[in-house]
Design a protein that fits this description.
The chain is α/β, with parallel strands linked by helices. The chain has helices at 2-10, 27-31, 71-83, 85-96, 128-140, 143-147, 156-179, 188-202, 208-229, 243-257, 264-272, 279-294, and strands spanning 45-46, 50-51, 60-65, 103-108, 115-118, 123-127. The chain has one domain (1-11, 55-228, 239-295). The protein has twelve helices and six strands. It comes from Oscillatoria acuminata PCC 6304.
Length: 326
């Protein structure tokens, strides 16, 4: 697509950039294509739960890797477990926030391309079927070919993993809103898109290359998804914004994060147009809002008492939304 080629040519990167932290282990992208089958335990493999504090009122976070239902899913789940990427994110979460309830993060086959937070079980379910669907979409639209030859190259496999990573933080946003009883003004789906984007953009451990790949991969996913919808009527009544709207909202946050970045001005002129001038304020406003919402739950903020400042029950007792395609 024209806009992807333009974005790739504009995002000029230094040759000395550090490795993409998402793929630092290397095993994940290999497991997307590897022919040999790894030996996978027949029972779900569980990362030892991390105690969030020395207080019985504080919850624990655990990561559970279920056996895949097919060979490539087994290889992928094994790669996720061995790479420890999400285990490290859980450790960062436990070191940063008090949670009043336990939280489980599961990787498994679901029979559909989806990811969701179950507020009843307090569980984030990451369906590897979703990753396969993203990869298929990128292969059908030749993302690797479209990105080749530019300053920023993203393969189909890498792009799919990056989007899967973005989705994880999207679902984590749902979990934090529920467990921490955070108020949401507006549509929650928009709020957690913003949470995921801001978290990844403001993370100092993410290189500029990673942030640029995050932008291109996520936008490509929304664009290709919208094109795949074809003439089918958009779900105007749905809880999500349209793919095109989500695309431009994330693009605005990326631009607002660093308007001086190489290529940012051209991106703004070509796509954001009249909205570009508002994006820096929009980014800072949303970042400040999320910071303020999470501040009362930050570990060791005011004391070392080991207790959360908010032990209210979750505000959303709704049933599991496992049919929601994120």
């Amino acid at each position: 697509m024209r806009w992807i080629k333009i974005a790739a040519s504009l995002l000029m990167l230094s040759s000395s950039l550090t490795a993409n932290p998402l793929l630092a282990q290397g095993s994940l992208s290999r497991n997307l294509r590897k022919e040999t089958v790894e030996v996978i335990p027949t029972q779900p493999t569980e990362t030892p739960p991390i105690q969030l504090a020395q207080n019985s009122r504080d919850g624990r976070v655990r990561v559970v890797y279920h056996e895949g239902t097919d060979d490539r899913s087994r290889r992928l789940i094994n790669g996720l477990r061995e790479g420890g990427i999400f285990d490290r994110r859980v450790e960062e979460l436990s070191n940063g926030l008090y949670l009043s309830q336990n939280l489980t993060i599961s990787f498994q086959n679901c029979g559909q391309a989806n990811a969701f937070y179950n507020p009843v079980a307090r569980e984030i379910v990451m369906c590897v079927d979703l990753l396969w669907d993203i990869l298929k979409l990128f292969e059908e639209n030749n993302l690797t070919e479209k990105m080749s030859g530019g300053k920023l190259e993203v393969s189909n496999e890498e792009g799919a993993l990056i989007v899967f990573y973005f989705v994880f933080f999207h679902e984590l946003g749902h979990a934090l809103i529920d467990i921490l009883n955070l108020p949401v003004v507006g549509r929650e789906e928009d709020a957690v898109d913003q949470f995921s984007s801001i978290l990844l953009l403001s993370n100092t451990t993410n290189t500029e290359e990673m942030k640029n790949k995050l932008l291109v991969s996520t936008l490509a996913w929304f664009l290709f998804s919208a094109e795949r919808r074809g003439d089918q009527q958009p779900a105007y009544w749905g809880q999500h914004a349209l793919e095109e709207q989500r695309l431009y909202n994330i693009m605005c946050l990326w631009y607002g994060h660093n308007p001086e970045a190489v290529g940012a001005a051209e991106l703004a002129n070509s796509y954001l147009r009249g909205r570009a001038s508002q994006c820096p304020r929009e980014y800072e406003s949303l970042r400040a809002a999320w910071t303020r919402l999470l501040e009362p739950h930050v570990r060791n903020r005011n004391s070392s008492s080991g207790s959360s400042t908010n032990n209210n029950a979750p505000q959303n007792p709704a049933q599991s939304d496992s049919n929601r395609v994120w």
